[in-house]
């Protein structure tokens, strides 16, 4: 969708649809209806209505929100499973190992996992959190803060969804400078009320 790459307003609105997954399940449909209304008054209505129709048929009607709502989950991605697979396959090295090599790799992996479980059980972290893990923890705190404000009626549903749009859908493989440039973030944007809530821990 070219409008996503070329216009910051349309990109923010599309990211808001991704942010629906962060809402409590009972508010997802209401949030979808509000976003649909925002699309109708958007200057990109013609380009975005096809997306709204797709989103409704796939992510509201076909795959129910109960399948993709991550509001109550600390794990919002499957990155931990992907990391496990990558580590195991880097241990195997060859694409089609023989049975003995495969069993040896399983034993080595079991040993590593057992060691990490013992460390975790004793209260030690098995690995130092990476920069991306710390960034994910900060985002989780921001999501929790926004949800608390929503539940205490200090923030409206649509404001919460639009704030979630700042937290989701960042381009993969782009540097920080390019992301800022692409999002057209200026100093005046950082003083807006929604970004001040997102920036604070």
TrEMBL record:
<feature type="region of interest" description="Disordered">
    <location>
        <begin position="173"/>
        <end position="201"/>
    </location>
</feature>
<protein>
    <submittedName>
        <fullName>Uncharacterized protein</fullName>
    </submittedName>
</protein>
<feature type="transmembrane region" description="Helical">
    <location>
        <begin position="12"/>
        <end position="28"/>
    </location>
</feature>
<keyword id="KW-0812">Transmembrane</keyword>
<keyword id="KW-1133">Transmembrane helix</keyword>
<feature type="compositionally biased region" description="Low complexity">
    <location>
        <begin position="185"/>
        <end position="201"/>
    </location>
</feature>
<keyword id="KW-0472">Membrane</keyword>
